[in-house]
Structure to design on (245 residues):
């Protein structure tokens, strides 16, 4: 009895089974990748269109804000109309001063260096009615009782002479003018209560030269100062910067 191997080709079903067993590892064909690529392209087109629409929307929603027209403004400069210009911006502009409010800042003083075409915020300027301290000046607070200032009081803007007088244990000493002319920058209280006529305290702040601030402060702490009101035409030893930088 002889044995012989079969040389017949495998059946169709056997070939199909072999392909299905290894089919899970094959790469997708080009035809199968096309829908995914098309979907990705559509998404990118939609994102681009949305971005363009947002840019166009923002560019059309521009507003006018206050900018600087001068080449530069130093701290302490008094703001004038010629110092400002109008510039338009879109997008995140929170904190900038709208051009419609520009006039409210005229007469105020700069608090930092500012440069041409720079957009500004309220922090770049002093508050309304507040002036900066000059670089060569210092403000000193003085508390005054009856006999140490005029009975009609001392107001902001008054010019006074700051005089140190002898205290009770220094009767032999002479009065000394510490500052010949100083500007009053703040004032509150009064020498006497207008209703009861009782003695009260007048608190004032005077602008003095830096080199004399220590002596004035020491005399103020010792309660040995007298303020003498002068003519408003008197030029103080140190004055505010009025924008002539």
């Amino acid at each position: 009895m002889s044995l012989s191997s079969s040389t017949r080709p495998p059946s169709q079903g056997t070939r199909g089974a072999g392909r299905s067993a290894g089919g899970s590892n094959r790469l997708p064909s080009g035809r199968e990748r096309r829908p995914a690529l098309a979907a990705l392209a559509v998404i990118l087109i939609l994102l681009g269109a949305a971005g363009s629409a947002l840019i166009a929307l923002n560019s059309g929603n521009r507003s006018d804000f206050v900018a600087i027209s001068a080449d530069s403004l130093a701290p302490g400069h008094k703001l004038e109309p010629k110092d400002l210009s109008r510039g338009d911006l879109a997008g995140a502009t929170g904190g900038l001063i709208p051009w419609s409010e520009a006039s409210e800042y005229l007469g105020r003083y700069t608090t930092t260096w500012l440069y041409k075409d720079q957009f500004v915020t309220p922090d770049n300027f002093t508050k309304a009615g507040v002036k900066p301290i000059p670089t060569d000046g210092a403000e000193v607070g003085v508390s005054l009782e009856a006999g140490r200032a005029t009975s009609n009081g001392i107001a902001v803007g008054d010019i006074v002479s700051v005089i140190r007088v002898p205290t009770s244990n220094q009767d032999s000493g002479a009065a000394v003018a510490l500052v010949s002319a100083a500007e009053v920058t703040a004032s509150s209280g009064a020498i006497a209560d207008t209703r009861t006529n009782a003695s009260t305290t007048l608190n004032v702040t005077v602008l003095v030269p830096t080199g004399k601030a220590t002596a004035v402060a020491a005399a103020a702490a010792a309660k040995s100062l007298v303020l003498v009101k002068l003519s408003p035409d008197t030029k103080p030893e140190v004055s505010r910067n009025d924008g002539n930088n």
Remarks:
- The chain has three helices and nine strands.
- Confidence is low (pLDDT under 50) at residues 1-6.
- Helices lie at 12-22, 30-60, 213-221.
